[in-house]
Amino acid sequence: MIAGRRPLVVAGAAALAVLIGLVAWTELNHAASLADGRDMNAYWNAALRLRDGEPLYRAGVANDSNLYRYAPWFAVLWLPLTFLPKEAVLVGWMALCLAAAVAAVAPLLRAGPVGWAAVAFLLPFGLEGAAYGNVQPLLVIALLWGAPRRSGPIWVALAASLKLVPIVLVAVYLGRREWARAAWTVALFLALVAPMLAFDLSGYARDIGSGQLSLLTVSSVLFGVVAMAAVAAAYRWAGTRWAWLLGSLAMMLGLPRFLLYEISFATVALAEEPRDVVPFPPRVVEST
After folding, report:
1. Under 8 Å between Cβ of 54 and 151
2. Do the Cβ atoms of 227 and 252 come closer than 8 Å?
3. Alpha-carbon distance 165 to 7, whole Å?
4. What pLDDT, in 10s, does the model give residues 48-70?
5. Residue 200 gets which letter from DSSP?
6. Between 20 and 30 A from 85 (CA), which of 107, 147, 192, 243?
7. What residues pair up with 213 in beta bridges, in sequence order?
């Protein structure tokens, strides 16, 4: 019976490999065509506006180089860089983003052929974010490495202050009854975004842009139900090995607009618990 099924298994695996290869090749070509670091312009221009005393949050549309939606601390971080040649900063920033995209999927290389296939599928999306010069690869590696650790509240709060959806990882902490970590995450997040109130927010862009992949454009109710169901699943199974996978899924489903490179959030599922952190509930070893 098993032998009879083997040709079907091989054929199915071959078809899947071809499909993954096509997706990877298409996405790599797409990423290469975007390799101009255009999203860095938004960070650079925001820092210039701070330096020149202009409004940090300026009205704009999606993909506008003046469109800045993040917490002010990130623009402040870019301030010193504006005194350097922009071309040199662009090269350094994109190199950092590319390194983060590769590092995020590196753990999969230990998983054999299945892991290599996952790398082939996921890496191009991380590289697309890097090609844009978007902060996405750095957020992913920060969450992948940091979220399970004792310093997790810092990394999750920093990521959430840039792209709100990482805050849903608090559901994993709550599901494990790690009340202090959940509270610290929320408190740090609020501390990071509170300075926004000191700026003129009348020009803050709330439009997700036209032609975007988004459940929100289909139905706000459907979007809310799907997002909350994903968060509830992350909470419910927080004590299992699926915790970070469900957390990464909740992040993606919580995005008001979905860009292809945000598939790289899926690599947060590779997060590993450090030995000094015991998730709730702890494993129970029966005595013999």
Report:
1. no
2. no
3. 43
4. 999 999 989 876 655 566 788 89
5. -
6. 192
7. 258
